[in-house]
Amino acid sequence: MPLPLSYSLRNVRARPTRSAMTAGVIALVVIACTLFLGLISSLKRTLVTSGDPRNLVVMRKGSDNDGASQISLAAYQAIRYFDGIARDEHDRPLVSPELVVQPFFRTRAGGRENVLVRGVEPVALQVHDTVRIVAGRMFAPSAHEVVVGRGVAGRYAGAELGNTVEFGRGQWRVVGVFDAGGSSFESEVWVDARELGNDAKRVYPYSGIRLRTASAADRQRLEDRIDNDPKYALDAQPETEYYARQSESANSLYVLVVGIAILAGVGAGFGASNTMYAAVQARTAEIGTLRALGFSRGAILAAFQIEALALAGLGFGLGAAASYGLSALLAAAVGGIAFGASTFTTNVVALRVGAADLIGALVLAVVIGVCGGVGPAWRAAHLRPIEALRKA
Amino acid sequence: MKYAGLVLANLGRNKLRTVLTGGAIMLAVVLVCLLLTMPAGLDALLDALASNTRISVHNKAGIVYPMPHAFTRKVRQLDGVAAAVSTTWFGGAYEEAGRVTFPNFAVEVEHIRAVYPDYPIAPEQLADFERYRDAALVGRQTMQKYRWRIGERITLRSTVWPVDLDFRIVGEIADEHAPYLWFNREYLDQALRATGRPGLGITGMIWARASDPNRVNAIMREIDDMSRNSEAETACETEKSFFSNFFGSLQGLVTIILIVTGLVTLCIVFIAANTASMAVRERSGELAVLKAIGFGRRVIFGMLLAETAVLSVVAGVTGVLVAVGLTRALRVFAGWSPALGPLGNFLVTPTVIVDGLFVSLVVGMLAGVVPSAGAARKSVVQALHEVF
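^ inputs. structure came back:
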């Protein structure tokens, strides 16, 4: 017959200070893990959601990002009329030629960062249909106007609606702010491609092309056709793949966080073990009595294991709640967290602790509970009833 | 001191608990040290740069905006400039196409010696670097990461220029935290011309060294004045200012790291306090007897505190040692990563070690104060009551 669940739970409550401290350690480990996990997953999410599976990125062969690529006007004009490209209601192909440069922007705090400035043509808003102007309007060509992403707005000197921002060789009026569903486009500034080309004195008018394919089959065909075209030496890849590759730089951080989680988890497991061993020791007579009453070893093992898990659960609950609060506090205090991407541009990432991060921390807490509880529970279950009772 | 035996015996009384507590504190100290090594790498880098007189000359608009290569000569001729070298980002990918795993630059080889006299490069290697067209100097960090040897040949595929270049590694920059690779600018220029392009007329950045530290600011002004109203206006900075700006975007990550370090430190308090309170509670009878036979409060308090302190110091020292070993492994494994920059150096500085020890000793002792004081304060009669 198993021991009632309340037996284990009441025992957690019987020594409030000790339970609170153990749960506190687990809670702190949970907070540390969720913060780090949240940071990385926010970074990954930002990059991964930037790609649209229907879109292709066309760059010069060998380039790893569109900031380092260049494409001739002839190549753009040829690709524009390839078959399999989606068209808008006026039957114009959805091909967006883009020029990317990374000039310095002054931050509010007085530092400076490389910000990705994307020179585009009006068709860009159709190819990147997650991008929506949420305040102001789209820039007018040749008027030295820009629209800025949400992550950029407010972060840099002058980067707000109606103000002027300084980059490259001139000053640009901010006429709009856009939202891009939390993707990395929100860390960009968009401007007329031709004006940006003049400002940056680029030999080639564009650095890359983004295009919308008509169907999945067309996507594959177009990819092959562009990859194998000997004339322009270009490389096409799905936009999702392009951003997934960029997010790989976050993987080295993952390794780090997993390492930290393991170290912290083992430490917290030791702490939990300690508490449980003390509980077993203090209740030796009680355990002897239970055994004498006929409760099996399995029942006692389970009861102590449940107690350990309850401690871990308590710790997780406290930690999860605290990390939610802390991440909100951090977001309010420092705004977005900037990451230097592998492409030498700044990605402003909004720190958000998501369900997946909490699940990761829950797994850690459960593992701490199970591993921390198994030794003491085993000892409790294997106490010899006579000896245990003698202590009473 | 005469109670040392008793303190140690008490620690040995419940060996399992002592080991578990010590292990938990040790792991926490390892974590604190590991986390602190990350910002330490950045600080050390910036501190090392504080004293030198190198000036970064780059386009005012940003480092991806080029400058005419000819401008290097103008900078070099300025009064007070001891030497200047132009460096251009090659963005070469090794092994896997399209992934730059370490920074690599085309430089004017003959000026490296004069601009970087403080860099640990063997003179004969430097001579080879100047002699061979396809020679490359590689930082030790990258040498170790790829297990390259001097004399080895490697190919880098540029992500920026439409060329692949073969290099012969002729020497290393003997600094464990140097990730970059330098090679001859003319080699790239010739390769570009071979493809029918106009060649390398630009430079990404010019590094100039001032001969007199007091003239640095004046020279920076002079250079900026010289480029005013030209195609490429420049913005000069000291090397320290340049790198602290360059790595400024890491500040958010550093904040998170410091918060987590604080959390882990708090863990140590909880673990140590928990153990101390358990030890005190179980021994309340014994402590009452000690008091009854005349041991003073201070002695009892001191003994209990010493127990916690000894445990946390031993754990702390072990933790620091483990952290030092781990960082070594991490450095080799992680190498240069754009997401971490110098944070990935995992530099163990004396400050990091002191912090680790401080955390374990002071924090561990603080955690022992409350339970120990409680036990010491309890009256003999009350304590004996609880026992009998």
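Chain B touches chain A through 65 residues (CB under 8 Å). The mean pLDDT of chain B is 86.
thumbs up if we can close this ticket
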